[in-house]
Amino acid sequence: MPHVESALRSASEEAAAHEKGRSAHLLIHDGPLRQTIIALQAGHVLAEHNSPPAASMYLLRGRVRVTGQDDSEVTQGQIVALTHVRHGVEALEDSVFLLTTVTSQSGESHGDSPESGHQH
Fold first, then answer.
1. What is the CATH number of domain 4-105?
2. Model pLDDT for residues 50-87, shown as the tens digit of each residue
3. Which residue ranges make up each domain of the chain?
4. Who contacts 48 (Cβ-Cβ below 8 Å, separation ≥6)?
5. Cβ–Cβ under 8 Å, residues 75 and 49
6. Could you tell me the pTM of the whole model?
7. Where is there biased composition of kind Low complexity (predicted)?
8. What is the CA radius of gyration of the chain?
9. How far apart are CA 6 and CA 40, in angstroms?
């Protein structure tokens, strides 16, 4: 079972040491669901990219600006749904967030198996 605080510390340390000022730790990959801890050092940017079918960002530490169609500042403790348009993320302070995404990829979930006849 992943420990969020440990992943947060590891990602922060790795981001501080990385030339691009970022690090990511995949905590959960369950069928189309992914939850990833992402650390981004102040002044660094995740370039604009397409959004998956559904996504949210929960800011655990710091302050970021989500750029795209509408720029918005996100502060520690806030959670935002990411729109279905291209967007980027700029760290205004050293920041760590939990990114939750649902992709269009199908797959087994929570021990479901083809033998069980349980499909999504």
1. 2.60.120.10
2. 888 899 999 999 999 999 878 899 999 999 998 777 89
3. 4-105
4. 67, 68, 86, 87, 88
5. no
6. 0.82
7. 1-10
8. 15
9. 16
